[in-house]
Amino acid sequence: MIQALRGMKDILQPQSERFVHIVETASEIAARYGYDYIETPLLEETALFKRSVGESSDIVGKEMYQFIDKGGNDVCLRPEGTAGIVRAFIQNKLDKRGGIHRFYYHGPMFRYERPQKGRLREFHQFGCESFGESSVYEDFTIILMIKDIFDALGIGYSIKLNSLGCPECMPGYRESLVRHLVDIRDGLCEDCQRRVETNPIRVLDCKNGSCKEALASSPLIVENLCETCDADFRRLTKMLDSHSIPYELDPKLVRGLDYYTRTAFEFVSDEIGAQSAIAGGGRYNRLVEFLGGKPTPAVGFALGIERIMELVKLPEKGRHGIYLGVMEEEALDTILKIAHNKRKSERVFVEYSKRSLKAHLKAADRLGARVCAVIGEEELKDSLVWIKDLETKEERRVGFDQLD
Ligand code: HAM
Q1: Residue 284: DSSP 8-state
Q2: DSSP string spanning 65-76?
Q3: Per-residue pLDDT tens digits for 104-155
Q4: CB 270: neighbour CB atoms within 10 A?
Q5: CB of 310 closer than 6 A to ligand 1?
Q6: By CB atoms within 10 Å of each CB, which of 23, 247, 252, 399 scores lowest?
């Protein structure tokens, strides 16, 4: 039997209900924050991700679903959403138009990682990207929006926050970090020894115990920020404080994608095991320019739908909808008309085959319907429908047009 690929999952009821609930809740909140829906292709030129996410990142270096298509193009299934949206932003000339543009999106992302609990090869993100606003209050507002989404979903979390500086302060910091890393090189894991040359900043968040120990006294970016980055970071933490949003400063939070400048954050849950990040994001002021557009400040985030599905509490719906059935075939036409009308306002199940009343009641119960409505021989003669409320157990007969 052919099975779904490793790390890829079908999402069926009741999980699919959680999935839809998360997407609908997040979309509604994003729309209230002024975001418009955007859809971009799943397949993009490989160069897009190499240039944005970064050639030395694990995502690009090890995890891409990359292939040559029939036209000889080097393409790749998107490992994340931001790069494609930045491409669309530039391609549609929104960078030239100026002003503020805010987008939300959701859909599958692909990373060839080692599957484990909470880590899939095909997973789904909901994300937002805001272009054109350089104020750190936009970063704050995005964090507030994620808080609103998680609060609406009934999910607990904590926030980790850092600043990754800008082209003014980052290079100097990088140099002092590399000097330090060279000194402690022997204590680093194999991957990090390589990263000293390719991506020294990533060494900071290595989960390996010996690296953590070796890095205890490493210089920290937050202590080396330029005046503007420092002032922005202070403004951000002040806003979070004044809105009573708790956060933890994590000077070693660097994120797995290379495009961040200044604000970087992660929302984590302690209820889902080792893969605890449920959302991540930050500012990426250089990316639009880097991909060929007019310099445009930008900030965004994405949340992992599958990880959140484990945590979300669905609102209690109880029995709902109406089940319609017949005991005489001639009544089917009437039942179908009632069904069509009822579907305008509620969930409807129709059984096309004639059945006994007992069989209809059993089926309605199994489907979780609130009401079971059946037309038998007598009802057909009298133009009535027999109905039973499966919650209150009340039974009665009503006219075709009085069914409510
Ligand atoms: P990211 O941190 O790589 O950021 O992914 C965002 C979220 O996607 C993670 O916090 C996690 O919940 C989920 N996720 C990531 N990988 C997996 C996986 N293999 N299986 C299941 N869930 C996963 C980004 O992708 C950036 N594009 C976010 C962003 C948007 N930054 C600015 N704008």
Answers
A1: -
A2: EEEE-TTS-EEE
A3: 999 999 999 999 999 999 999 999 999 999 999 999 999 999 999 999 999 9
A4: 9
A5: no
A6: 399
Q: What are the residues facing 131 on neighbouring strands?
A: 101, 298
Instruction: Give 309's pLDDT tier (boundaries 50, 70, 90).
Output: very high
CB 92 within 8 A of CB 40: no
Nearest CA to ligand 1 atom 3: 256
Please indicate whether residue 129, judged by its CB atom, sits closer than 6 Å to ligand 1: yes
Average model confidence (pLDDT) across the chain: 95
| Shortest-distance Cα residue to atom 16 of ligand 1 | 119
Atom of ligand 1 nearest to the CA of 113: 19
116 DSSP 8-state letter: B
Q: Are 322 and 373 in contact (CB under 8 A)?
A: yes
302 lines ligand 1 (CB under 6 A): yes
Q: What is the pLDDT of residues 205-215, one digit of tens each?
A: 888 888 888 88
In this prediction the pTM is: 0.94
CATH class name, domain 322-403: alpha beta
144-166 pLDDT, tens digit each? 999 999 999 999 999 999 999 99
List, for residues 40-50, the tens digit of each pLDDT value.
999 999 999 99
CATH of 15-169+225-311, one of 1.10.560.10, 3.30.365.10, 3.30.930.10, 3.40.630.30: 3.30.930.10
- CB-based burial of residue 235 (10 Å sphere; 0-12 exposed, 13-18 middle, 19+ buried)? middle
What are the start and end residues of each CATH 3.40.50.800 domain in the chain? 322-403
